[in-house]
Amino acid sequence: MTDEVTNDFGGQPPEEDDVRPVDNLIPFPRMRASTQLAQRWADVVEARNKKNGTQYRFISAAAAVDDLIRLRNMPALAWPPSWTGLIRRVRVYPKDMVGVVGSQGGGKTSFALQAAIAAAGAGTPTVWAALELNPPQILTRGIGNMNGVHASTVRDTWTRERIEHAAGAYTDMFHFVDRFRDPEKQLAAMREAVLVAWEIYRVPPLLVVDHIGKLFSNARDPNVGATQALEALRELTEDLDCMTMPLSQGSRGNQAVLTGKVDVDAASDAMGVAASARAFEEDCSYVIALVVFKEDDAHELHSHALITKARHTGLEGREGYIFKKAGGVWVAMDHLPPTPSAVKSEIDKAKRDKHRILPAPTPAQARADLDDAAAGDAAAMRRVKMLEAVVRHGALGIELVELRKVYGVGRGAVFQQTLQELLRAGSAEKYQTRVRMIARIR
């Protein structure tokens, strides 16, 4: 018996001579767009819009390419260059909202200020809706962030001339939105500020709302108020082709998560820590939860930035930071600092060790030991990444300029240290402007 050849739908495939173009058939089999169908669709939509007094577009997939290319030609949000992990995970384009969530005093404003000042340096203007702190308070925090000093030092001890000189570094690219009690007036002011920025700079501006809770503080139902406020912000963001960063206080029930008292297995498990959680999930392209491990009288705090939603990259995860109280500076780390639960677990483990001679470590000692171990693992991983890049290019080697671009090999002094470690180990050698493998002769 002869086996019959069938197509994917169970029937026998037609002979080549039997294939005939059919009039008025959607041309999916040949995967070719029909200009006649496209024109017919456009004519019908135009006629119905004229008849009904509407302005629907109903664009096709091919027509959406024009919008895509237009947006792609606009500059994306530039993060601080040292935040390499966040740059990889969070790519904010025009029409996107990136939500930042944190506890009370968890560094949200400082995080947004540091991002806005970096964006200003890259040519992106910022319009800042100061709904909680007033402009002078934001000013002193911004100057403190740039100079690594407390805002109170700027406010109380700096001369007017020194403050003006420091503010002059970014004042042309940074403006405050007037504040109104009425949410509709506030949103109208934000819209107008974005339009002014567009008209002057001709690039997508960044709108920072600090913080979103103030937009619905008078709402009878906070959940409904949050949804309406964020929907209005999303509409503004998409209509005006800008980028928006709403800041949000964490809900009281999730303060333990945002201070590290309760750890989460994966960053995405922290989704919902915002007081306006559901609206954040639906309207933001990215959501960043700032988890600061707080200590009394500590000048520097270990922190995790949890990327709980990443619409464009899909790279949900966490990045390690040190939050310096002087200036509210966020310093990126190449490893994840230990969480309070990990420190507690290390201490408990030492206490249960019956063969231990020394007393159990203090929390500070346990934290330092775990941090050193994580730093050592990160250094080893950098060497592995660098060696893999060199090996991929074989005997010819890789240009130093290209090697610096490889993700995971470090930046600046860290990159140089990793390279020197690789060279001293005899795994590679420098040849002119390249790094290449060392040939092993047996």
For the largest beta-sheet, the strand count, sense and barrel status come to:
9 strands, mixed
Report the uncertain regions: 1-18
Q: Tell me, what is the CATH class of the largest domain?
A: Alpha Beta
The CATH superfamily of the largest domain is P-loop containing nucleotide triphosphate hydrolases
Radius of gyration: 28 Å
Distance between the termini: 62 Å
> What name does CATH use for the topology of the largest domain?
Rossmann fold
Shape: globular
| Proportion in β-strands | 5-15%
Number of strands: 12
Total domains: 3
pLDDT averaged over residues: 85
Level of helix content? 40-55%
Structural class per helix/strand content?
A: alpha/beta
Specify the number of helices.
15
What do you see in this structure?
The longest helix is centred in the last third of the chain and has 30 residues. Helix 4 packs across helix 5, helix 5 packs across helix 6 and helix 12 crosses helix 13. The protein has 15 helices and 12 strands. The chain folds into 3 domains: 50 residues, no CATH class; 250 residues, Rossmann fold; 95 residues, Orthogonal Bundle (Arc Repressor Mutant, subunit A). The strands form 2 sheets. Strands 3-2-4-5-1-6-7-8-9 form a 9-stranded mixed β-sheet, with helices on both faces. A 3-stranded antiparallel β-sheet has the order 10-12-11. The N terminus is likely disordered. By secondary structure, it is of the alpha/beta class. Strand 8 and strand 9 form a beta hairpin. It starts with 34 loop residues before the first helix and ends in a 5-residue tail after the last strand. Helices cover 42% and strands 15% of the residues.
